[in-house]
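Entry, Tuesday afternoon. Goal for today is a structural model of the target with pyridoxal-5'-phosphate bound, before we commit to ordering more compound. Inputs were pasted exactly as handed over by J.K., no edits. I checked the ligand SMILES twice against the vendor sheet because last time a stereocentre got dropped in transcription.
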Amino acid sequence: MPGAENFTVKRGNSRFELAGILPEVLSEIERTLLSGNVILSSEVSRFEQAFASYIGCGYALGVNSGTDALILALEALDIGPGDEVITVANTFHATALAISRTGARPVLVDCRPDDFMMDTDQLKAAVTDRTRAVIAVHLFGRPLDIEPIVALCEHYGLDLIEDCAQAVGARIGNRRVGSIGRIGCFSFHPSKNLGAAGDAGIITTSDPKLAERLRGLRYFGQRERKVHGELGHNTKLDTLQAIVLYHKLPMLDGWNDRRRERASRYRAQLSGLPLSFQAPDPEHVYHLFQVRSAERDELQKCLVAAGVDAIVRYPKPIHLQPAFASLGYGPGAFVVAEQLARTLLCLPIRPDLDDQHMDLVVTTISDFYRTRTLAQA
Ligand SMILES: *Cc1c(COP(=O)(O)O)cnc(C)c1O
């Protein structure tokens, strides 16, 4: 496989994202470096306030990564050994990892074949007297069908955590994801829709008590100066990352609009081929554009050979990962997640993807199927 820089159609373009803001970002970074004030500085709180107001929640607390955001969220809700947390078999590893890291047990449910996300009909059967919370994942950038989950959590007295790592800016009705559950967790990994220049994440909540607890948890469990009320972590949003994120945030909605527009163009141009797509949603922010193909592996090879950085997210569902073998799920436990793992392929999508590059992707896929049809005739 060629390195990412050698692809004709790339998955990301940091040059585009920084165009226009780079001089300001660099001068703030220079000022920060010279001031020496680099830990939990005013630049961090400036971004936290901007992000909280963007999401529409009371508080946002910057941490090292989306994974840490999830771990701290669970800990702030006192979830640990003996507890169960329900999430979905088709998600990024970190969602389930965070649950196991607290000592709690991830309980998985399958996903739906149409929108590829948590099958809310299966939630009820997964609830036991040990269940404490549900982590709802807005996967690939699509806000998930959250109403039944909210209702179930209210009914059983469970806490709802939203994993918004892939869907920053997506809305459900007039609310942004991350403002609906008790806690929202975000990642600013450079690959995400709002990407930092390294690892970064944030936690959102509107509960002042939880916000205080989270503030302590990210700083060695400190409740007041030099008094460590509990065993916390050292996971703080870095000042340099906060500067980059603060300047990128005002552009996010425009970028997400553009991703949606690019996705509709893919859908239109690829229609009629033996492919299917994630059920559309007007609020989808297309962190990933997934096509479902029975010939996924061959199609990927063909795209990569043509210079298209097409990738598989995720080739192995959570329950079949060696790290989660102890959960005791085997092959066949979550049939839809397993089918998706065999058939989904991500096509490059970014706000600045131009028609010419998209056309190369579309033509390569059309030619792939035309050649196969001819070969089979
Ligand atoms: C990226 C991601 C995370 C973890 O974020 P990091 O910042 O990489 O730790 C968690 N959940 C989902 C769904 C993700 O896509």
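The chain has a mean pLDDT of 97.
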